[in-house]
Amino acid sequence: MSAPDSNEAQRELWNRVRARIKASVGVDVFTSWFASLELEEIVDDVVHLSAPTRFLCSWVQSNYAERLLEAFRQDDENVTRIQVTLRVNGQARPRLAQPAAEPVSLAATPVAASAAPQAPSAPRLIRDNTATKGDALSGSAIDQRMTFDTFVAGSANEMALGVARQIATAAANNTVTFNPVYIHSTVGLGKSHLLNAIAHAVQSADATKNIVYLTADHFMYHFITAVQRQSALGFKEWLRRVDLLLIDDMQFLQGKSATEFGHTLGTLLTGAKQVVVAGDAPPRDLEMLDERVRSRLSGGLVVPISGFDLELRRAIVQRRADQSTARFGMHFPAPVIDYISRAVISHGRDLDGAVNRLVAANQLTGELITVPLAEKTLGDLIRSREARRVRIEDILKIVSRHYKVPRNELLSARRSRDVVRPRQIAMFLAKALTSRSLPEIGRRFGGRDHTTVLHSVRKVEQMIKDDVELAQEIELLKRMLEE
What we know:
The protein is α/β, with parallel strands linked by helices and 483 residues long. Helices cover 54% and strands 10% of the residues. Strands 6-7-8-5-9 form a 5-stranded parallel β-sheet, sandwiched between helices. Mean pLDDT is 78; it is low at 95-139. The termini are far apart. The radius of gyration is 25 Å and the shape is globular. It has helices spanning 3-25, 27-34, 54-63, 65-73, 158-172, 191-205, 216-228, 232-240, 255-270, 291-298, 310-328, 334-343, 348-365, 371-384, 392-403, 407-410, 417-433, 438-444, 450-466, 468-482, and strands spanning 38-43, 46-51, 81-88, 91-93, 181-184, 211-215, 244-248, 274-279, 301-304.
């Protein structure tokens, strides 16, 4: 068979495999984990797939390699192994068949399914400059732009900034002032920026410090991988040797990983090691953690970041506008700065996005940056933020109160009708009123699978069609949540 014919045959095979996988796992799981995979080549008995991120490479390799292998073997029994590697700028590296002169970079290849179990690589320490940034097996990447110098301070976040600076100074000098520290706010108000800034400051002051920054997803991934490879003790011991542990997006920690975090937290605090955690709710609302861990977090320093006032929003927009002016040479008139500050009221990321849109409009069309251009360019952003942001915690509280079902029972495994129906309605509202994905909603509802959430959503949609009274009841709940 000629090379073009061979490539076409492999593409057809991959299309059949994708169809089997989608039918097997469902549309939502397929979209989350398989849709962005691409077939690079099949060499001998090895199928080489590529993914756009290292985390996706590692997750698919660890959790779905066998399912993929089974799907391929329905057409080609000679296939014995699946290998998933990183795709950068449209090209996967390393390829299975490469010219002899091109060295294969083993560091970019997650462990293959048939390889012998190994201890997971430790998440990347800030001081290790040789580690590959963003490697899923090397921890969460640090954003080089998120430093104290680039943080815009105001009344809403000045306490959090002061605490973060004090933590960084103390950690660099081998002392502990507040421990643990828990920073919480809604999305986009600067929690991740402060965690990154602490890491940068401590590393700059003392490059020998063992500093670890992990998102909750990465913490779970490392723990699950360690258990699968029978190296959980090594993972625990590694964490206990760190000087500064920073955990972001705490609200996503679930299951046994949440329990392990509790053990790690206790050990580090006993050894006077600094721990800083960020989440989207106060410790008391982190239902995935047991009471002792919530108590440990509450017993430290809990620092909220409130919504940005007009003055802080204007300062952020001005800073971003000044940066764009220095880079591109365009002019942001004061009325435009004022318009963005008053119209975009959600959070810092939307303010950044508003400035970026105007920069793009100016660069692409040559149109001067004016208030009419801002009105035209930012209209959908402003409209999309007019409604109050609904959180899953709000939904749980409203549904619990309306149906007189304790919140912990909505998250429990109870299957009685008086619990199941309110739980399904709460999941439906979470899907309808929040931007959370089905897997995220499942995690927030007691660690349920996304298919359970999808079943609940479809069940309530059908009930609304059949029951006018229920439809009115759910509309009432929506109004209560959006007010």
